[in-house]
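Dear support,

I submitted the protein below through the web form. The confirmation email said the job was done, but the results page showed an empty box. After a refresh the structure appeared. I'm attaching both so you can tell me whether what I see now is the final result or a partial one.
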Amino acid sequence: MNMPFEKVYLACGSTDMRKSIDGLAAIVIECFDLDPFSPCLFVFCNRKRDKLKILQWEVNGFWLYYRRLEKGTFQWPSDKDLTPISISPRQFRWLLDGMSMNQHQAHREVLARTIL
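What the results page shows now:
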C-alpha cells in the first residue's frame, strides 16, 4: 500500500470473501454510508479470521489487497452491528501483525508541534 490514506475502516464481524471489488464497494456505500472513492482503506475479514481483503481507491481505479495467514488469526472485532469502526494507521499495523488494536503497553504516539 504505497498510496497515503486518511482513515482505516473495519467491517465488524465477518464478510463473505467471495465478494470482489464491486461487492465490497457496494457494502461501503449501502451498509456503511461511506464513499469508496475517498482516500481511506476499507478492511473486511472472513469468519475464520485468517483472511483479509482491503479495498482502496487510487486515482483511476481500485486496489484490492488480499492477505491470508498460514497460522493464527487476526484480532478482529466480532460486533454484529453493520456500522464500521474507524481505527488509526498505527492500530491497523498492530492488527496486521496479529496483535490487539488496543495495546496498553505501547509507547504513546507523539505528534510534532510546529514552532511559530
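Response: this is the final, complete result; the empty box was a page-load delay. Helices lie at 21-30, 89-96.
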